[in-house]
Amino acid sequence: MKESYLLRCGDCTEKLKEINENSIDLVLTDPPYNLGLFMKKRETNLGALRSNHFAASDWDHMDQCDWEKKLDVFFSESARVIKTKGALIIFVAIIKAETVINIAQKHGFYYKTTGIWHKTNPMPRNMNLHFINSTESWIYFINNGKTGAFNNNGKAIHDFYESGGIGMGEKKDGKHPTQKPISLMEHFVKLLSNEGDTVLDPFMGGGSSGIAAVKNNRKFYGIELNKEYFKMSDLRIKKASKDKTP
Questions:
Q1: Residue 37: per-residue pLDDT
Q2: Which of 65, 122, 188, 194 is least enclosed by beta carbons within 10 angstroms?
Q3: If one looks up domain 5-244 in CATH, what number appears?
Q4: Domains of the chain: which residue ranges?
Q5: Is 118 helix (H, G, I), strand (E, B) or coil?
């Protein structure tokens, strides 16, 4: 990559094959959790939810076997393109964690830990019926090794990150239904990669991972299937890149 970032629109299981092996330092990604069909079978008050909620999205209701096959290709290609001892952070639904870990280990990834992003301002949906959903899980892997870059600067780093959701400033160029805050993605970019490294997100969505990368002097390679979200990411990352230009 000659530029600070490179974006591709298409299916990551195909686009990943275009990336050179041993060229990526960190994969930071938030793929579909594949909970759509599961949610629709439960009493989740979906009729009152916004139309772009993930449970109503066609990209989140694959057959479980098909979803696992996609994940298998993703981890196979990720193992090829990530450098030895490079890191991979993947956001997952906690009920899918064991499946994700098993598939990753099959392709040589070393499981480090499972952590939590705690949202301090979650939607209080169904608050009088059950616990408010205020957390999302992530899993940390190392490719072909047991440890890699970990820029903790001598400080203890806990296995959770706490923040609010995306602010209004992060919505002005569009909003993805499962968009992550830039600060959350920066947390992993700064901790698990170094300046000049290359960060890859095969499920780019709203582009927060790309903004976090270019803001912190990393190169970024992003892949997104949906054309609308791809344009949104392209615009957001382009602005972030220009802001970095002296």
A1: 60
A2: 65
A3: 3.40.50.150
A4: 5-244
A5: strand
